[in-house]
Amino acid sequence: MAIEYERLLNWKVPSVEQQYSDRDVMLYALGLGLGLGREDPDQLRFVYEDGLCILPTMATILGHPGFWMSDPATGIDWRRVLHGEQALEVHRPLSVSGDVVGHTRVDSIVDKGPGKGALLYSTRELLDRRTDELLCTLRATQFMRSEGGFGGPRGPSQEMPGMPIGAPHAARDFATTLQTALIYRLSGDRNPLHADPAVARAAGFPRPILHGLATFGIAGYGVVCQFCSGEPARLRTLRVRFTAPVYPGETLRVEMWQSGSHQCQFRCKVIERDVTVLNHGLATFL
After folding, report:
1. Architecture of domain 5-285
2. 259 touches 267 (CB < 8 A)
């Protein structure tokens, strides 16, 4: 079943109300691999209730509409969908517990042509359910690898900032474990691509891959540590492009360049394979 451009462009993604607690905050951080160094106070404060802090990237899993593209009526082959880009804008720092609602909409769809796939751009606004205050805006790009050539518009595609030339100003390494994806999916993203070997093979991967948003969260934590003095509330925006899969158990290196008094650029590499898995990263902070 091929996608129908107008139908998908006007798809009504259900809004999602969600209450979250300190338990959810700790589970999210554990899903990123924080707490492996149990005596590290920088990590412990994200996984222990005494003085608990919340990472701003947790907004990516709050009010999340789930894997709505798996609905057969969309015409999308969900097994061939990959997360292409992600952006986060923080309007008000998240609390360690809250009652929120997420409103998601499809913004545009780009047909890259037969055999080249298609891009679906969407926006999710996360609001405080009690006050209607806008907390965060999240923009995502999904790469639908099997859907090119449906006759839709060919552009424009979003531009990403170029990367600096030369050695990074700072780098931080983060280990993942074979359980990382299995823990992270408990925060809401139950796509079997990240757990079921048969589904992973059908999608063209030798084994389950780590969620792109887990890599996004790890990179955000690296930026918070390096440029925000460890204060998560100082992070204001984070934007990335996903360029290759991460397999649970690999080690991620976040390479960072300061590009202004309140801005940095970054990328993530898998050390074991020397592969860039997240690129064109741009963050702003207070």
Report:
1. Roll (3.10)
2. no
- Strands 170-175 and 263-270 come out as unpaired
Residue the block writes with tokens 């790469």: 143
Q: Cα 137 from chain centroid?
A: 13
Place of tokens 């280990």: 175
Please give the Cα distance from 142 to 274 (Å, whole number).
25
The answer to whether the beta carbons of residues 233 and 94 sit under 8 Å apart is: no
Cα distances from 194 to residues 161, 199, 205, 207, 245, in angstroms, run 29, 9, 10, 8, 11
**HSE on the CB side for 3, CA within 13 Å?**
30
Gap between the Cα atoms of 161 and 38, Å rounded: 36
Residue 266's SS3 state is strand
For the annotated catalytic residues, the residue numbers are: 189, 194, 209, 212
Question: pLDDT tens-digit profile of 66-89?
Answer: 889 889 999 999 888 889 999 999
Strands (E), the chain: 16-20, 81-90, 98-111, 118-128, 134-144, 170-175, 235-242, 251-260, 263-270, 275-285
Cβ proximity of 265 and 277 under 8 Å:
no
| pLDDT tens, position by position, 169-225 | 999 999 999 999 999 999 988 889 999 999 999 989 999 999 999 999 999 999 999
Instruction: Give the DSSP letter string of 190-234.
Output: --GGGT-HHHHHHTT-SS----HHHHHHHHHHHHHHHHSTT-GGG
Look at the alpha carbons of 29, 32, 36, 40 in this order and tell me if their dihedral is positive or negative: negative
CA distance 268 to 276: 6
pLDDT digits over 80-131, tens only? 888 999 999 999 999 999 999 999 999 999 999 998 999 999 999 999 999 9
